[in-house]
Write a structure and sequence with these properties.
Aspartate Aminotransferase, domain 2, 428 residues, 8-stranded mixed sheet, alpha/beta
Amino acid sequence: MNSDKDSIKKEINKLIDSYFKQDGEKFIPGKSKVPLMVPQYGSEEVKEAVESLLSTYVTMGEKVKQFEKMFAEYMQVKHAVMVNSGSSAALLALHSLSSLYHKNGIEKGDEIITSPLTWSTTVSSIVNFGAVPVFVDVDINSYNIDPGKIEDAITEKTKAIMPVHLLGNPCDMHEIRKIADDNNLFVIEDTCESYGAELSGKKAGSFGHAAITSFFFSHHITTIEGGMILANEQEHADILRSLRAHGWIREMSSKDSILKQHPGLDPRFFFYTSGFNVRPTDIQGAFGLHQLPKLEKFIEIRRNNARYLNDGLHRYDDYLILPEERKDTRHVYFCYALTVKKNATFTKNELISYLESRNIETRPIETGNILNHPVSKIYNYKANEELRNADYIHNNSFFIGNHHGFTDNHLNFIVESIGSFIKSKGGK
């Protein structure tokens, strides 16, 4: 019987390998899509996932644990705790730093300084926790929070700074961490789009008291859905593992000492805190085991693509702000972002319409300024100044794809399309 099952598995794996060896469609400029993203997994991930399905053990298990260990090592931190999404990671990170678990922790009504230029769940996690998001403006070139504006936003209610490493570009964590340490504040890094980015050789996501990542389908690597919370303290990691799974103690390193204080309770069903159920599946862990070894290759492709596009579009920098890699940083280019300058002879919407007419997909810079969306009406938030740069980016910036699915033909077509549009508008 087992030999029959083994032979069936081998045949399944052979078919999966054969399927993924099929050639893709030929790129036809102007007709083929230049997509924002393409699937970055192959037969290895699918075979590992099928193995989990056939084993019938599909909920969080050993493959998740292996992936957590690998990812923590890659990110230069001691602990990584996987959850079902980056959004859940943000919410758990805040709860794990609450006053219930940390002296002088974050409480409801406390203020958390963050960027208005981000994804919606960075802000909604703060709001859903019960804290108050405080928005400060961003740098026009990097799109990241401006450290020079943070100190003016600090009050006696401020408990944390939540910088967002946007679009693969690391924030100035040296300055942000200094401000936080001088004012006794937590730092929670949002690295959902930027794992692998570095500042002075140190990974973005390794500077704070906690960090979050996402492995959504369009990110640098994917577990289809999924996220991770990073921490350096064992006690902190224990709390995160309890919070992600009902509040029980099954995965806590301190569970034996806790059990001694409560004899008679079944250790399998011992509830330590009020938790959530945001566990990943072992199928997600299976994907992660094969995706992470590919990450550096994917990053190098994105970096090469960005250099190629910058070289081709540099002649138009009178009209466009191009992405740049700051000194002593490593940009991992989640996408290729462009900002139309004030003196340009065209608008963002005109350029977008032209690119879309040529099947080059575009999208906004995340939400743009989140305060320009109706959802902000239900936020209890603060903004101590006009968010001029965030508003300018909201109205004048967008991005196109950047991934391993691009060939020189795609890149040449992008450069040629932008160039022909600018010349049609009187540009040089």
